[in-house]
Amino acid sequence: MLARQEEALKDFEDLAGKLPWSDPLKVWEVNTCFKKKKTKHKKMSVNSNKKKIVNGQGDKLDERDDGGFVNSALDSRILDYYENPAIKEEISTLVGDDLASSKTETDEHSKEETEPQVLKFRVTCNRAGEKHCFTSNEAARDFGGAVQDHFKWKADMTNFDVEVLLNIHDNEMVVGIALTEESLHRRNITHFGPTTLRSTLAYGMLRLCAPQPNDIIVDPMCGTGAIPIEGATEWSNCYHIAGDNSPLAVKRTANNISSLLTKNQVQEGKLCWGMPIDAVQWDSCNLPLRTGSVDIIVTDMPFGKRMGSKKRNWNLYPACLQEMSRVCRPGTGIENGNIYP
Ligand SMILES: C[S@@+](CC[C@H](N)C(=O)[O-])C[C@H]1O[C@@H](n2cnc3c(N)ncnc32)[C@H](O)[C@@H]1O
């Protein structure tokens, strides 16, 4: 299973070298054709089973991948869904009154039959940084206007063919086209905490450590368990231990594990015997683990912004790093942490 995944990743790496990246629309076309073949989806833009977005004056409603609606004003509940939001991050999808279509779907379909096909698009803006004099919604709206003028595409929030991504981080801007219909960064997590790490990041951190079969992998400050849960899902031939000193965090991790087990059971239609993971409450500065008993530690320590404080980190970091070095077996694994001084 792991070998197959690695092969698939290798194929993707090779593919990356062959795609016409200087022409993003070509890449999108290739991807769409591939997905159509692969999944036999009728249409990439079939979102018709989702509710229509209310686009009234000043309403900034955004439809997330889970089909739910969230207010795109800076809402702490949204922030929790994203990578440790020590940096402010704001996400909006273009909803300019002048851009979004108010036509009914029946109108759309009858028009489509008679007129040459015009691509439908929406812009989703991800903004992180303190010094912007615009919101992500304003950026999405203005950028959407420019896209519309340039390509003569039609803005459509729900029935779009192309999702244009506008990622703004401080004074950097990256424009892209979404190649997956659904973001994968929330996979496996149902119970979120104040600093839940994106599953995609957790996967990358684990992969950098090159886990080997039977490795014991520990996250001593697991929060909601994003890292060890990703580990137990993708490296199921290893044993994962998730620990945290907060009882609430341990409970969230346990809930996430149990939701995932139920989901797998429903999807596969058979009893799922469990996952190679345990969740425990402990102090990472005094781990109940034998010296030299752990192969890999992957963790995401508190930055001292949303969680803990920078002052406390001066004592916490040396104490827990020393304890981590005690429990690590020399010569196995590659230590990889997410440390922001
Ligand atoms: C940045 S959060 C980890 C977030 C986690 N990666 C997730 O996806 O939810 C840091 C975690 O360290 C925990 N923590 C802080 N001090 C600790 C200690 N001494 N022992 C164990 N855990 C600790 C906090 O309770 C918090 O859950």
TrEMBL record:
CDD domains: THUMP_AdoMetMT
Entries under PROSITE patterns matching the protein: THUMP (PS51165), UPF0020 (PS01261)
Record-stated family: Belongs to the methyltransferase superfamily.
GO MF assignments: RNA binding; tRNA (guanine) methyltransferase activity
Key words of the record: Cytoplasm, Methyltransferase, RNA-binding, Transferase, tRNA processing
Major site of localization recorded for this protein: cytoplasm
Protein name in the entry: THUMP domain-containing protein 3
One matching Pfam family: UPF0020
Location of the protein in the cell: Cytoplasm
GO cellular component entries: cytoplasm; tRNA methyltransferase complex
Gene3D superfamilies, per database record: 3.30.2130.30, Vaccinia Virus protein VP39
SUPFAM superfamilies: S-adenosyl-L-methionine-dependent methyltransferases (SSF53335), THUMP domain-like (SSF143437)
Entry-linked InterPro entries: RlmKL-like_Mtase, RlmKL-like_Mtase_CS, SAM-dependent_MTases_sf, THUMP_dom
Domain of life: Eukaryota
Residue ranges annotated for the THUMP domain, each copy included: 72-179
Gene Ontology process terms (BP): tRNA methylation
